[in-house]
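Trying the structure run again after the queue cleared.
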Amino acid sequence: MSNENPHSTNWKTRTYLIGVAGGALFGLIAALLYTRAAQEEAERGGQPPQIPTGTVIGLLLSALALVRQISEAGKPNK
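Done. Tokens:
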């Protein structure tokens, strides 16, 4: 049995739920914007464009930087 106070885990659960909802909303908006742009390009050229590897790597590095900034926000100021 855990010695944790039930109120001490309540904020964690709320934070997880907000993070999941925010991430899902961000992902949905990104997917909608990407598919809209790809569809416009497909109507002009016949096929949706391929995403260049450099673009994917840049997006992944940006996502990692964002996660790092979010994790740093939870630390106390010095």
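The chain has a mean pLDDT of 88. Worth checking whether this holds up in the mutant runs.
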